[in-house]
Amino acid sequence: xxxxxxxxxxxxxxxxxxxxxxxxxxxxxxxxxxxxINLRNAINNTAANLVxxxxxxxxxxxxxxxxxxxxxxPIPVIMFxxxxxxxxxxxxxxxxxxxxxxxGFREDRIKPILSAAVTRFEASQKLQNxxxxxxxxxxxxxxxxxxxxxLMKQRHCTExxxxxxxxxxxxxxNKRLGEISASIxxxxxxxx
Length: 192
Known about the structure:
With about 190 residues, the protein is α/β, with parallel strands linked by helices. Helices cover about 60% and strands about 15% of the residues. Strands 2-1-3-4-5 form a 5-stranded parallel sheet, sandwiched between helices.
C-alpha cells in the first residue's frame, strides 16, 4: 500500500533528507509549510495517511491546528523538533501525536521512527475503538436493566420473565435488545 505522506517543513534540506531516506519505499509526498498550511484541507486534498512535521521549534498555531485535527480525524503524526520543552512534548503526546522526536532528525532514524509511530497509532486506535465498544455495551446494559425494572413493575413479573419478554420482542422485531429497551423507557416516560 502506498503511504501518502504530508510533509510539513520549512527547511528544504530536511525535506530532501527525509525523502531520500524513504526513496526505496512506496511513498507519495506532498509538501507544505507548517506555519501557513490549512492542515485539514491539505490532508483531505492529498488523501494523506501520515503527517510528518519537521521544525526547529513548534509554534502555537501549528500546535493548535494539529491537535484540533487529531481530535476529530485521527491520523498518525510524527514530529521532528529541534528545540522544545518537556511540557510541549507531553502535550503533543497526550493530544495524539504518534512520535515526538526532539533533536533526533537523522536519515538513518527516519524509517524506524515512522514504522514505530504508525504501529503505535494503529494500536492506540484499536484501544480507542475497544473502549468505545465497551462504553456502548455498558450503556446498553444499563438500558436493559432499566427496561426490565419497568416491565417488572408494570407486569408484576420476575426479572427473568421481564428479560424474556424483552428478548422475545427483540427477536420478533429484529432489533437489538438495547434498542427495544430504549423504546420501552421512552414509552414509559411518555405515559408517566
